[in-house]
Design brief:
It is built from 13 helices and 16 strands. By secondary structure, the chain is an alpha/beta fold.
Length: 388
Amino acid sequence: MKRRPRILLTGTMAARPYAGGNTWAFLQWVLGFQRLGLETFFVEEIRREDIVDDTGQATRLATSVNARYFGEVAAAFDLGGRVALLERGGPGHVGLSRTEVEALAPSVDGFLNQYGRATWLLPLIKGCRVYWDTDPGYTQVWQEAYDVDMGLRDHDMYLTVGLGVGRPGCPLPTAGVSWETTLGPVVVSEWSTSRPAGDTYTTIADWRGFGAVEWRGVWYGQKADEFRRIVDLPRRVRVPLELCLAIHPEDPDRVELDRHGWRVIPARRRAGTPAAYRDYVLSSRGEFTCVKGICAAGQIGWIGDRTACYLAGGRPAIVQSTGIERYLPTGDGLLTFSSLEGAVAAIDRVESRYAQHAEAARVLAREHLDSDKVLGRLGRLIGVSRRP
């Protein structure tokens, strides 16, 4: 009897403990491939400087908040025996050991290597080695304009969730490679709900995130810069707007957000685990969010994994345009804007026919973002087919 095809993914869950949204960004892929009948493994290599205790002090991996969180996630989603958290440059591990991962690697049929980080595994992989770009625009600009080694070498395929990369209308570089593009998957069954929507439009985000970058004379700023352009929005609409943010309490923007009527709550407290994050999304009326400057001005053709969760839960999403209109139907369930006036109009449009937009959100997620479809297509591209 032939074994099931195997796929191995690398990523970063434990390096950002109690950031539920970051964890879901990887869980959608892990759980989605499992749904397709693939034997799915996840490996994270963590730097020693990121291994800390509850007070933020350096500690051993075994006693760290990182290890505890990783173990909690593995247990919650029944991933035991198929995940590994490995200490870079040391013997510490949670789940599979480095020796066990290396023994597994030659039997892997598909390898999704986020940012090319796991260079130590590449020589061992006999299946398709896929470079996995989850921050389109930054990956390419850092490589070409800032001489950052983004680990592009020695892969068989280059995959990005920026549908506009390398296409007309996107002014950003390709870093000299040909990119396959994909929508990000959402495991629809994880987000289906009959609970009624709340009364508040929300989003969950890092306020600062990556610093500004420059490409060919154009500077691309942070998500904070984009929100500042529409900071007066709460005064222009009849529904509450809430930001669940990772933001320093003394950030001067915090005062400005309060002054203009935005509700701001701490992300770790309200959405620190996958379960809490899901509860927060599904308790919302819908999503309202801006995006990073490189996604907006760069017209990268991107839709966030967070937005996919709102849509799958039947929560309409109103997001700043990234050029996604060229690749997905917008206007019902998923609406985009490029200005303060456009944001006001989009919210008013959803509120005028909320039930229809909520249903359209569910339909869009099922038809375009469902992990069965998105990862089924990707499996065929990399030669890892679904098998009974």
